[in-house]
């Protein structure tokens, strides 16, 4: 599995993928692989009141990836506590929370993904 | 298109209630009708604002149940779910129903029964509104508040205690609201030393989990005087959505749903933010009151944090905000909150707010769903 953002022919990049590009309405045709990129922490929180099946405390951050002409952001868990401005890189995680414990139907979505690890 | 009047408003006691959703809705609905001596059989439309009775208690079809319970058989019924802003969306729907001429008498009842669930379960039910890529990380609405609060405080060099000032103000206001869940003062020290929930936010930065219901009765302005002398008029209303995925916003400290919905409401009412005398804002988290003050046009971007600190939004300030105590101390039964905001404005504008009465002719309510995912803004005017 790769950490994939998506791009339309006009160079607008989004994470996650959308049915149509939110900026111009065109179909997203390109994949932008963020798996080996280094991003910057825009903001972070540590949540101590977590829902069923979620680790406690849960460190979360919004991370921005600079792609030259444009940039794209993603939200994710972090492997360790981070600070604003820290450089982080994605690390694969097979199960981000216990898929059977929350209210959402287990089969309705996937549960693997990427955590951000300080570099 | 004629203007729409609100001829009656009611709310139940908010807090931890033994009653289930249908009982809470019935209590608010019956008292709303009794206030103006209207029989339920006269209702053309009956709307229910409710986010998640199915998820909370396994009860669906609540509008039909309510119509039966209060004796409104024959009325057209509809449930309105717009997450935390279900109440505001219900007001929008009720306004449409009367303004369009489809109904001459519409009642809206908003309610939620939540406290029988654990905090973790209730948080998860609410978090289920997030995008799958957000949900799988265990993100909650409080954690969005933590993320955006940090970004705001760092971007605008605002002191942490500014958020505590919002909580302290709204708790102070709640003391004079007999329907509020909490009626006690909380000092800054207690707020700033309470347990961390989503760093930098602490327990007192969040509204409680609440049971409760509120109701409003709508008719065309020209018929209002047939029912009562104490009515108000909806002079402006607007609704808008922001991105589903929060991190995709150009600036996550700007709530474009608030900006867009209020612009529509101001335009319809033909007023500017300076003309608003009081406001009920969606302080589900303290940071949200600050962001709304800016995005509604009351303060420049980055300056809204000064309001509670300097007393501008206190009950005796230039722009009293959340005289009801806000969601913060009044409580936040999801589907009822937007309805209860307008209940407070109606009480204030008809001089019926007792010990929390302020001088006001124009009031604004902003009801935020999700983390600005969907918003409605309502502007209410006094008539006497
Ligand atoms: Zn595009």
Automatic annotation (TrEMBL), chain A:
The keyword Lyase does not apply. Keywords: Plasmid. Residues 99-119 are annotated as: Disordered. It comes from the Archaea. Residues 99-113 have a biased composition (Basic and acidic residues). Coiled coil: none annotated. This is Nucleic acid-binding protein. The lineage of its organism: Archaea, Methanobacteriati, Methanobacteriota, Stenosarchaea group, Halobacteria.
Automatic annotation (TrEMBL), chain B:
The keyword DNA-binding does not apply. The keyword S-adenosyl-L-methionine does not apply. SUPFAM superfamilies: Thiolase-like (SSF53901). Residues 238-381 form the Thiolase C-terminal domain. This is Thiolase family protein. Residues 4-222 form the Thiolase N-terminal domain. The lineage of its organism: Archaea, Methanobacteriati, Methanobacteriota, Stenosarchaea group, Halobacteria. GO terms for biological process: isoprenoid biosynthetic process. It comes from the Archaea. One of its GO terms (molecular function) is acyltransferase activity, transferring groups other than amino-acyl groups. InterPro entries: Thiolase, Thiolase-like, Thiolase_C_2, Thiolase_N. Keywords: Isoprene biosynthesis, Plasmid.
